[in-house]
Design brief:
Layout (H helix, E strand, L loop, with lengths): L6 H10 L10 H8 L10 E4 L6 H7 L5 E5 L2 H10 L6 E5 L12 E7 L1 H6 L4 H15 E11 L3 H8 L6 E9 L18 E9 L7 E3 L1
Parallel strand pairs: 1-2, 1-4, 2-3, 4-5, 6-8
Antiparallel strand pairs: 5-7, 6-7
Length: 214
């Protein structure tokens, strides 16, 4: 995966290969787990680093119709704006996740499928991840939830997610990597390389960022 912020790389990629592409999982693969935390079909959802993924489309078809999608690549955003121009409530905006232009508490849910992983591939990754997560925390409402789909194991990702300034309770789920020709979540095998991790981050009632496993 290329690093986040390399505009030229991503613009060239989306120009060269405009066909839909999903990192890690389709909606069908994460729906059962993620759906537990989407309490209402009318929830205001922010999809970070949307690229040309089908995630929002498939969620929209499943009844979640208030989805704001942001990406660093203007090429990707323009393409998605055109493709989904008739879907009311589905928006696509070019934006830097480290300095988002949304008001505080604007969203009930932030979904991140591979974007934090991309940020970690780049220079200055620790600072950039901190900036991004501070922005995610800022735009979530007081009961909001940040859902991260990642290939990174808890020993690596919880270092970033459990920082005290966020006050997040973090639950860790696993989902089997997709198998060719099979839809939906597959049986999980916690051996390294066979699963993706879903980190569900909610503000703890005591303000702490404890971890749990499901």
């Amino acid at each position: 995966m290329a690093q986040y912020g390399k505009t030229e790389y991503w613009d060239e990629r989306y120009t060269r290969d405009p066909e839909p592409f999903d990192w890690y999982q389709r909606w069908s693969g994460i729906r059962d787990i993620v759906g537990e935390y989407l309490k209402s079909k009318s929830a205001s959802i922010l999809n970070t680093g949307c690229g040309n993924s089908r995630l929002s489309e498939e969620m929209y078809e499943d009844g979640y119709t208030q989805i704001m999608n942001v990406d660093y690549s203007l090429v990707a955003i323009k393409s998605m704006q055109e493709k989904y121009r008739e879907k009311v409530g589905m928006q696509f905006v070019q934006m830097d996740l480290r300095a988002m232009e949304f008001p505080e508490g604007a969203y009930n849910v932030v979904i991140d499928k591979g974007t934090l992983d991309s940020v970690l591939c780049g220079e200055g990754s620790t600072l950039n991840v901190q900036k991004m997560l501070m922005e995610v925390s800022r735009v979530l409402d007081s009961k909001g939830v940040y859902i991260l789909i990642s290939h990174g194991q808890p020993s690596y990702r919880l270092t970033y997610l459990q920082r005290p300034e966020f006050g997040w309770d973090v639950k860790v789920h696993t989902v089997g990597k997709p198998t060719m020709g099979m839809a939906g979540a597959q049986p999980t095998d916690d051996k390294e390389g066979n699963v993706h991790y879903i980190y569900v981050c909610q503000r703890g009632s005591d303000g702490s960022g404890g971890a749990g496993a499901a």
